Amino acid sequence: MANINFKLRALLLDIENQLSDSNITDLCFLLGDDVPRRVLDACKKDQSMREVWETLFSCRKITPDNVTYLIERFEQINRMDLAARLRQFCHIPFSSTVSTVPTRTPSSPARATTTNELFYQRNPPNSS
To answer: Which stretches make up the DED domain (predicted)?
Structure first.
């Protein structure tokens, strides 16, 4: 785990070097609910994300096994390249845009997709 943690931290340092001042300002705005104001103000002043990354680790918004939180924020500031790098790093396949609704296969029975269909399948109308 320590090696994975080191690799993620190294990746975050490299990502930080690719962020423009505008990217940092936008990212700080998006992180406002999860990172203390003093940390964000220092980040904007120094243009260093290190304390921000540390705060996100501390509050478990990011972990070596889950960087979805950061991926979503990078997508919001239109840094798809950085989001893609984080996706490649993560060992657990995921996507913030993929639906988790099961698909129907020919061998599986049809599943109700709406509340009305659920009730209909459970209590079909009388056919008198």
So the answer is: 7-88
